[in-house]
Specification:
By secondary structure, the protein is an all-alpha fold. It folds into 4 domains: about 60 residues, no CATH class; about 50 residues, Orthogonal Bundle (Arc Repressor Mutant, subunit A); about 40 residues, no CATH class; about 90 residues. Helices cover about 65% and strands about 0% of the residues. Helix 8 packs across helix 9. The C terminus is likely disordered.
Length: about 300
């Protein structure tokens, strides 16, 4: 009986002291965190039986817990934070610690070495292979794989090297096509790449035909004939300059030295004979012009 009276009294006190929550004491749905839910489950039985002042204290405790949870959320790093963290970090030496994002292989190192070789001067594939394996100590398999990748990327090409080499030797030394071909073979360039490189430089087969009687070019000539005539005129002009530059000895001695100069550049006998024929005719014409312009006095 006494316990029943105590329960009735507590019920009366609860209903009499209960009041609605003020707006400041209410929590929104966004503020409900897992920590709040845990607090609700642990204090649900106690808060409902306390008076309003005790209940307000519990709500304020929950708000403080929510604020603590919000402060524990890590802040997202910005670029400035990343830069600040890396500013004093060593990027080389014994204290450097690799992140493991990229680990270069021997093939990658060989590619970088090929670029450094080509920056110095153009090289053929065989020259690059010898530099990698003999000078730098790379395995043949790694060197070939790196060279294949660089050729696919267009960084190195034996055909392009053959074209550039042929243009250089023709422009500066007037080398014949077969002389250029022999030099390229010694550098390890195969005939297929040599033929591709010779296309824009020499006529088919490296043919050069000296025109003994120069006349105007026909408009109906194709590009191959034009290229052959162009190279013949360039070679004739170079031989004429060389012949006039050498003034030692008589005419026959000058001709022999000119023939030796053309042979060293790889030109055939027919080309040399035609050039000598043209130069002899020009020498005879010059002598006739000097005789015609001289003064004659009759006795």
């Amino acid at each position: 009986m006494r316990r029943a009276r105590v329960d009735m009294f507590l019920t009366f006190v609860r209903t009499a002291c209960a009041r609605p929550l003020a707006p400041a004491e209410r929590l929104t749905h966004a503020e409900a965190t897992p920590r709040r839910l845990k607090l609700d489950s642990s204090q649900s039985s106690t808060t409902t039986s306390f008076p309003s002042r005790t209940r307000g204290f519990a709500l304020r405790t929950r708000a403080q817990a929510n604020a603590d949870d919000a402060s524990e959320v890590p802040r997202k790093k910005t670029r400035a934070d990343v830069f600040e963290s890396l500013k004093n970090q060593p990027l080389s030496g014994t204290k450097y610690k690799s992140t493991g994002a990229f680990q270069p292989t021997r093939v990658d190192d060989a590619k970088a070495q090929i670029v450094r070789f080509l920056e110095y001067k153009p090289r053929t594939r065989k020259e690059l292979f010898d530099k990698l394996t003999i000078d730098k100590g790379y395995e043949a398999e790694d060197a070939n794989e790196a060279l294949d990748a660089m050729q696919r990327a267009g960084v190195q090409s034996d055909a392009a090297y053959a074209e550039a080499f042929a243009r250089y030797k023709w422009r500066n030394s007037r080398w014949a096509a077969w002389r250029v071909r022999g030099a390229l073979r010694q550098k390890g360039v195969d005939d297929r790449d040599i033929d591709l490189g010779f296309g824009p430089v020499f006529a088919e087969g490296g043919a050069i035909k000296i025109d003994l009687f120069e006349d105007d070019e026909d408009d109906d000539e194709d590009d191959e004939e034009n290229l052959e005539r162009t190279r013949a005129k360039e070679l004739l002009q170079a031989a004429r300059t060389q012949f006039k530059r050498n003034k030692r000895g008589d005419f026959q001695a000058r001709v022999r030295r000119l023939m030796a100069w053309l042979e060293r550049r790889g030109h055939g006998g027919s080309v040399i004979r035609d050039i000598v024929t043209v130069l002899k005719r020009e020498e005879e014409y010059s002598d006739d012009d000097e005789d015609d312009g001289a003064l004659h006095f009759d006795d």
